[in-house]
Amino acid sequence: MKHIRNFCIIAHIDHGKSTLADRLLDATQTVTAREQQAQLLDNMDLERERGITIKSHAIQMDYIHNGEQYTLNLIDTPGHVDFSYEVSRSIAACEGALLIVDAAQSIQAQTISNLYLALENDLEIIPVLNKIDLPSANPEEVSDDIVDLLGCEYEDIIPASGKTGLGVDKILEAIINRIPPPKGVEDEPLQALIFDSVYNPFRGIEVIFRVTNGTIKKGQKIKFMATGKEYFADEIGTLKLNQVPKQEIKTGDVGYLISGIKEAREVKVGDTITDAKEPTKNMIGGFENVKPMVFAGIYPVDTEDYEELRNSMEKLQLNDASLVFLPESSAALGFGFRCGFLGMLHMEIIQERLEREFDMTVITTVPNVSYFAYSKKEPEVPIVVNNPSDLPEPSRMDHVEEPYIKATIITKSDFVGQVMSLCIEKRGLITNQTYLTPERVELTFDMPLAEIVFDFYDRLKTVSKGYASFDYSPIGMRTSNLVKVDILLNGQIVDALSALIHVDNAHNIGKKMCEKLKELIPRQQFDIPIQAAIGVKVISRETIKALRKDVTAKCYGGDISRKRKLLEKQKKGKKRMRQVGNVEIPQEAFMAVLKLN
Ligand code: GTP
């Protein structure tokens, strides 16, 4: 045990975590030259394309220091707020963390939020000043920031570059010398923390765990404490670049487990594995069931594909337990599913996976958060509203609550004014303002989740010219004066376009919605009135004028390859259209409410 070190890397997005992890793998010869490939840890196609780490993984390295062999378990953590629960469980499996700070960008919101998580778990922090090869690097100033933040000494900071490999040996030495070996008692009953799971279509779910006490043995009958389910440990092993089967994994070490589990739902990140016959009395603390934050309807473009869509979603759920869905029907779109996601990125990933892996073409409706409605009859019992159409009649309703978050924004002092205006426009209440340095300010706001899950981040980047970072955590439900704004096309309500909006913004948003839809919905052979309404009261109106002439006419006589391209493009565009009544609505229209600025 004294030769094991468990650590993670925490950093703000793009500060170079994955690149530095690759350098550590090279330096410990965990990967042979043949296996080398940029950003090894990001092995899902989607991750590679987006250049972000979506799921956490673990990898074990062997390292010889002063003639002694050490086992280093690097636990990778996802970098996006949607996946912050997974970050917290990965951190709980470590004794130390490399805190990577980009020498040009300095400390950002996620540097701080992840650091707090690490400190809560008593991790030893090794500050790394990364990307010092960059011409724009500002090592002195950023070192000052790090010292201010951590209260450490300047000598504790390791200057490094994931690009040139500078500082990698120093980092490895610091991992051995500064991070304590795991504590734990080998002859206690088995107690292991599940911090990740991976779906393998041939072998079922692979559970990634860290043993806190006791030993897990191949063939042992084990129990997952939160779900109460029992399994046999058919295969256990350590995670090098590939899996290496072992007979046992001892206290302090990290490994994988395969036991014929077919569904991701059975494995809860944060759960404790113990021996079925001689269980530990204590579950490892911090377990939570992850709750979806954003909901949207997913409907097949072709109504005949409903069953196939259901099959595809079930398969997706096998390897992504955080996706939840229930059948729903919409007057406008027919049969589909109301799905819950961890956040907007998660929603995009699911939509993309449905299209890529399952060849489904789907329409995603306006995303919304989860509201609580209280009826006059039973004002104590909340009715969970995951779809605006499910909101009870205003006359029967006592009040509505919506989820709030604490938002933390770090920005340059030049942009404080703009950032504040944006947050106030988004119904934020400022709760704190701290100057971290004369140039850098930390602002905190209480804000409705609904206002930030959608386009907030893009707007923030724009108003701060990129110099703002942002993080958030939920702080519970608060009463809000919300109304349902409906959209009528050709006199008919399109339920999939309804949204719950704060009463003060309802008129403005209704008006902008109509204008936006007028832009997005293609003209047809007849006039299409677009109306926004609250109840029976119409608050805004636009008309899409009927088509006068044949728009394809200008194709004829043109260059043949261009014409073909245009037709291809139209075919593609066509795929994401839904016929509602006699109006064709493109996918973008369902997202219009999110992009009204
Ligand atoms: P997420 O996984 O999305 O959180 O990002 P990350 O923190 O893992 O960052 P990543 O390693 O993907 O690096 C982000 C970008 O910075 C990439 O374009 C890297 O090539 C670049 N980069 C990383 N390290 C260095 C460095 O030391 N010097 C320079 N110049 N560029 C670097």
Protein described:
This protein starts with a strand and ends in a 6-residue tail after the last helix. Helix content is 25%, strand content 34%. It has five domains: 4-178, P-loop containing nucleotide triphosphate hydrolases (Rossmann fold, 3-Layer(aba) Sandwich); 191-275, Translation factors (Elongation Factor Tu (Ef-tu), domain 3), CATH 2.40.30; 294-365, 2-Layer Sandwich (Alpha-Beta Plaits); 371-480, Alpha-Beta Plaits (2-Layer Sandwich), CATH 3.30.70; 484-594, 2-Layer Sandwich (Alpha-Beta Plaits). It is built from 14 helices and 33 strands. α7 packs across α8 (344-358). It is α+β, with helices and mostly antiparallel strands and 597 residues long. A hairpin with a 4-residue loop joins β24 (429-435) and β25. The strands form seven sheets. It has an eight-stranded antiparallel β-sheet with strand order 11-10-16-7-8-15-12-13. Guanosine-5'-triphosphate (GTP) is lined by residues 11, 13-19, 51-53, 79, 130-131, 133-134, 161-163.
SSE blueprint:
Layout: E1 4-11, H1 17-27, H2 45-50, E2 58-65, E3 68-75, H3 84-92, E4 96-102, H4 109-120, E5 124-130, H5 139-150, E6 158-159, H6 168-178, E7 191-200, E8 204-213, E9 216-217, E10 221-224, E11 230-232, E12 235-239, E13 243-246, E14 248-249, E15 254-258, E16 272-275, E17 294-300, H7 306-319, E18 324-330, E19 334-341, H8 344-358, E20 362-364, E21 371-375, E22 383-385, E23 397-412, H9 416-425, E24 429-435, E25 440-448, H10 449-452, H11 456-463, E26 468-480, E27 482-489, E28 492-493, E29 499-502, H12 503-520, E30 528-534, E31 537-544, H13 560-575, E32 577-580, E33 583-586, H14 587-591
Parallel strand pairs: 1-3, 1-4, 4-5, 5-6
Antiparallel strand pairs: 2-3, 7-8, 7-16, 8-15, 9-14, 10-11, 10-16, 12-13, 12-15, 17-19, 17-20, 18-19, 21-22, 21-23, 23-25, 23-26, 24-25, 27-28, 27-29, 27-30, 30-31, 32-33
Helix pairs in contact: 7-8
Residues 11, 13-19, 51-53, 79, 130-131, 133-134, 161-163 line the site of guanosine-5'-triphosphate (GTP).
